[in-house]
Amino acid sequence: MSTPTRIPCPPQLDKESGRTLYQTVRTGKLAGGQKLVLDFVDTTAMDSLGGAWLVEIADHARRRNTELLCENHTGHVSEFIDMIEPALLTAPPLPARTMGIVESLGNTTLSATTEGRQFLELCIDAIYWTLIAPLEGKGLRWGLLLDEIHEMGVRAVRIVCLMNFLLGLIIAMLMAKQAENYGISLFVADILVIGFNRELAAIMTAVVVSARTGAAIAAEISTMKVQEEIDALKGMGLNVAQFLVAPKLLAMLIVLPCLVTLGTISGVLGGAVWGIAVLGFQPAIWFNQTINACHFDDIFQGMLKTFFFAVIIALIGCHNGLRVTGGSRGVGLMTTRSVVQDIFMIIVIDIIFAMIFYYVLQ
Predict the structure, then answer these.
(1) What is the DSSP letter of 334?
(2) Which residue in 34, 32, 33, 6 sits closest to 21, CA to CA?
């Protein structure tokens, strides 16, 4: 067995002498399994700062797997050491336990199930307060609804039209190069109007709205949650779904189809710019070709999925906002999570509609 390392303590253990004692212990080479003995035979006084340094010495010894012993203390010093003894003898923290595959899978499944249940409850409350409650005379916040329509719809018109216009211009540019090889450049107008009616306007507009409005919804409700405004609403007896979710959902159902319509027009106009300015077609010929290729079935296919996009953007934003934890970092994380989930669900819904129209309705 190795010989214990014995270090004498100063006559008065205070802030300065405690720091010196701590440096002495640190500079000494403590081996694992060795004992460190602090000899208090000459120590007659000790204050709280000295005791704090004694705790630091105990932590240092513990990290070196060294046992600390305090010997020969008497009187006031003995009483002080007895008082801080639990801190001197505290066991080191247990290492973090790594979950196994089965436990990790179970934890993930339980978390996903809980979140799914919460989302389903939010959907039920939102549908009730948006569609059923107003018919029962329970009222809707019309003033807030108009504000949401202005914020979600009117202020998003420019960016939605610009993005779809540029997309139409790019698609016309790429398709024209291929169509020239077969002498069918005029049919680029058909491709544009069919593509934007069925798919492109709805997808592009939904992605822009999810990044703009979906993120704003999540950030707004997250901030209210962090600042305990949601708890205050509940304390006043107000229903959160009626007060916050229903106006946002109804506003989104109103504005997104309108934005998709404007996006379709902008995309077709973007393609027309290339067809008329670069390909050299007469405006009357290009727009006649566009109108002849525009069919109600294509418009219906694009508009139908738009309502589902609106529902999912609004509800995912509200759901993530209500689940936020922590402070400002939690708000940022939930905002990012909301946008990612929005875009993912937009793609999933679009795939479902594509399969339905391809295998069932075609």
Answers:
(1) H
(2) 6
Residue with tokens 């759901």: 319
Residue 6's region, left for phi above 0, alpha for psi from -120 to 50, else beta, is beta
Nearest CA among 19, 25, 4, 11 for reference residue 51: 19
Q: Are 188 and 268 in contact (CB under 8 A)?
A: no
Task: In whole angstroms, give the CA distance from residue 344 to residue 338.
Answer: 10
Phi, psi angles (nearest 5°) of residue 331: -60, -45
Tokens coding 289: 């070709």
CATH architecture of 5-88: 2-Layer Sandwich (3.30)
Whether the CA torsion 270, 274, 276, 281 is positive or negative: it is: negative
Residues in the chain: 362
- Per residue of the chain (362 residues), give pLDDT as tens: 457 778 888 888 888 888 888 888 877 766 656 777 888 888 888 888 888 888 888 888 877 777 778 887 888 878 888 887 777 765 555 566 677 788 888 888 998 999 899 999 999 999 898 888 888 877 777 888 899 999 999 999 999 999 999 999 999 999 888 888 788 888 999 999 999 999 999 999 999 999 999 999 999 999 998 888 888 888 888 888 888 899 999 999 999 999 999 999 999 999 999 999 988 889 999 999 999 999 998 899 999 999 999 999 999 999 999 988 877 888 989 999 999 999 999 999 999 999 998 887 66
Q: How many CB atoms lie within 10 A of CB 274?
A: 22
Segment holding 5, helix H or strand E: strand 5-8
Q: What is the pTM of this model?
A: 0.71
CA distance 298 to 353: 12
- Determine which helix (DSSP H) or strand (DSSP E) holds 69, and give its type and residue range: strand 67-71
- The domain segmentation of the chain, as residue ranges, is 5-88, 125-359
